[in-house]
Automatic annotation (TrEMBL):
Locations listed in the record: Cytoplasm; Nucleus, Nucleolus
Species this chain originates from: Erithacus rubecula (European robin)
Pfam families (alphabetical): RNase_PH, RNase_PH_C
Name of protein: Exosome complex component RRP43
GO biological process, one term: nuclear polyadenylation-dependent rRNA catabolic process
Length: 277
């Protein structure tokens, strides 16, 4: 299989591998790339941060917590504001300037995952009903794009949120002003641990997990399944492309539940290794 055929006829080149149930990078069709997490001090100015590598795809997430008044119609709720950035440095296809369509779609996907999974309940971010609440700005920046942005982004978000410790805040009844105790910090309450598992669909029928950028470009569709630790389905993200039969979708969900266990185990292991004894 010459490099020439990969350049001239990339799809045919891939099909020859897929017939043998493997991929050009040596992985089997159902095999994920090596996943690595880096927590402590990824971003020193953030209240929580994590860097995730999924093969070559590298994503960093920083969470910044600020105080604000709750919205009038949600007096007992705080805010979570996710934002995904795809700067020009991460791949040739992206340009500097306002967020493009892909970055906007990824930001919306992350917002939906937070909402649907209830990983953070907004009521938990309220400090004083109608007066004060936390705002969590979750900035997810792709440093190196080689496919499967959504899985890496959800991993980085979850890992960064598990790294967040918020200071104790009270409201002085006499002055009405907020008082922040930086010496007493508590971890953020994370109710659910969503994990995303993405698949590329080849020739309308064949499913491969954790696609690279090249595989995404050649695929006839993609689908992302998000599950929590109880095996519950939080969301199915399928932006057009090849339709999936019920059986194929169920296969994706089953694989996603298995993947969730692997990722959760990996995050817990890393957190345990950096927690002071």
């Amino acid at each position: 299989l010459s490099l020439c055929s990969r350049t001239v006829e990339p799809l045919e080149y891939y099909r020859r591998f897929l017939k043998e149930n493997c991929r050009p990078d040596g992985r089997e069709l159902g095999e994920f790339r090596t996943t690595t997490f880096f927590f402590s001090g990824s971003i020193t100015t953030a209240d929580g941060s994590a860097l995730v590598k999924l093969g070559n795809t590298t994503v960093i997430c920083g969470v910044k917590a600020e105080l604000a008044a709750p919205a009038v119609d949600s007096a007992n709720k705080g805010y979570i504001v996710p934002n995904v950035e795809l700067p020009s440095l991460c791949a040739e296809r992206f340009r500097s300037g306002p967020p493009g369509e892909e970055a906007q779609a990824a930001s919306q996907f992350i917002a939906d995952v937070i909402e649907n999974s209830q990983m953070i309940v907004k009521e938990d971010l309220c400090i004083a009903n109608g007066k004060l609440a936390w705002v969590l700005y979750c900035d997810i920046i792709c440093l190196d794009y080689d496919g499967n942005l959504l899985d890496a982004s959800v991993f980085a978000l979850l890992a960064a949120l598990k790294n967040v410790h918020l200071p104790l805040v009270t409201i002085n009844e006499e002055t009405g002003l907020s008082e922040v105790n930086l010496k007493q910090k508590n971890p953020l309450i994370i109710r659910k641990h969503p994990v995303a598992t993405s698949f590329a669909i080849f020739d309308d029928t064949l499913l491969i997990v954790d696609p690279t950028a090249e595989e995404e470009d050649l695929a006839t569709g993609t689908v992302t399944i998000v599950t929590d630790e109880e095996g519950k389905l939080c969301s199915v993200h399928k932006p057009g492309g090849s339709p999936l039969t019920g059986a194929k979708l169920q296969d994706c969900i089953t694989r996603a539940i298995t993947r969730h266990k692997e990722v959760k185990k990996l995050i817990d292991k890393v957190i345990k290794s950096i927690t002071p004894k």
